Amino acid sequence: MSFFASSPNTVMSHNVIRFRVTLAVIAFGATIAPPQTASTQNASDPLGTIVAEAVRNNLAIAQERLAEESAAADLREARGRFLPSLSIASRYSELREPLDLGEFVNPAYAALNQVIGENRFPTNLSLTLPFAHESRVRLTQPVFDASIAAGFSASRHARDAQHHQRRGATRRIAAQAQTAYLDVATARNARKIWEATLELVTESERVATRLVDAGRATPDALFRARADRSDVEQRLAEARDQEDAAIRAFNQLLRRPLAAPVEEIADTALRFELRMTEEEAIARALERREELAQASAGVRAGEARVRLATASFMPNVAIAVDYGVQGSALRLDGDDDFAVASVVLSWNVFNGGQDVARRHGAQADAERLRLRRGELEDLVRLDVSRAYRAAVVARDAIVTADAGLAAARRNFELVRRRYEEGLATQIEFLDARTALTSAELNRVITMYRYAIRCVDLERASALREID
């Protein structure tokens, strides 16, 4: 009787204490953190480094950055249309039977010379048209062209829309990176629970073996202990596989080697708290969500395209200054130079209704973008409301999980003592152990589910500052 009362009690109590320590480390405070930039990490943002690495290495965001650079280049091109342009052109042509005005002028000059009796007028002029050689420099400055201003406005708003699209992609990657790490932490702590449980059931099997050897228990107790240990070993193998899968998914998102170890952040540093009401979260999202800013920029770009289409109904005025040389021979001679200053007016009066159709299409597209902006606002409200209420439900579930854990732990203590005193069967002991393990797993899953819900709310409400 002394063996049953001392050795099993000492060893099993040691395992229970170790089991509790493991579970205490797993639990983290349920306290969402203040907004932090995506490139910094401090005590209130322990996941900031992970977010920064994910944003820095993500190929989709790199593509969005290049698309933003392309849009900025388009804007610079549109701005350049306001400025004067300078062009140089030179031509030399080999003429075949060109029009020679000298053939008409020379006979007249010869007749005049006969009348006046003097060779005052030349009779060997060669004035071919067009000239065989012409080189010129042209400076053109638009004075009035409504399409230039409208095109610049459309390019500017398109650049803004691409900028907000890149920021929105960054926010989604930030949330995915945090969620991926929390998935790793969930699987890692679940694996720790099963490892602690394996130690407990292994000790239970050893005790059952000694009891059978001492004649204080029947062989079926040993078989049940072995079956329980085998079940826990299987669950532990599955937990390790789930942890490996979560690590691979996390490393793939951050573009690390798939088998690279994932740094462990202390669970006590992961603090999440709901510090605003649902209405405040919705108001912040409507003010800061990149999707809405992108849609607004798209509406303004659509309105600019309407003005661009309307510009085709208006005249264009420009000033052109030409300086060059021309003549029948290829030479640059000051005697053959010329200078021309022109005011150029062009007006497309009618082109078969193409301009009317183009403006109508631009107006329809602008109206579609306005409707899309309103639809997105409704979707953002729904997204924030869903994320907020999911976080509240997950937070409230922690209280239930804690109560269930406390009850399961107390029940396990009572059954364990009764089992050690021979007043409880092994089945009762195993059932109590299974209930405690389930309660501990449920608490870990519940706590990390709440953390994931807070990360989703952070994304939906645009709480994290994005560089």
Distance between the termini: 70 Å
Number of separate helices:
10
CATH fold field value of the largest domain: Outer membrane efflux proteins (OEP)
Order of helices and strands: HHHEEHEEHHHHEEHH
Strand content: 5-15%
Categorize the overall geometry: rod-shaped
The major sheet is characterized as: 4 strands, antiparallel
Tell me the Rg in angstroms: 42 Å
Whole-number mean pLDDT: 84
User: How many individual domains?
Assistant: 2
For this structure, what is the CATH homologous superfamily of the largest domain? Outer membrane efflux proteins (OEP)
Architecture of the largest domain, CATH level 2? Up-down Bundle
Task: Tally the beta strands.
Answer: 6
Model description:
The chain has 467 residues and is α+β, with helices and mostly antiparallel strands. It has 2 domains: 2-84 and 146-313 and 354-460, Outer membrane efflux proteins (OEP) (Up-down Bundle); 97-128, no CATH class. It is built from 10 helices and 6 strands. The protein has helices at residues 2-26, 48-57, 59-80, 102-116, 146-213, 219-253, 278-288, 290-310, 354-420, 426-460; strands spanning 85-92, 99-100, 128-129, 133-144, 316-327, 337-346. The strands form 2 sheets. A 4-stranded antiparallel sheet has the order 1-4-5-6, with no helix packed on it. Strands 2-3 form a two-stranded antiparallel sheet. Helix 2 packs across helix 5 (146-213), helix 3 runs antiparallel to helix 5 (146-213) and helix 8 packs antiparallel against helix 9 (354-420). It is rod-shaped. Mean pLDDT is 84; it is low at 1-41.
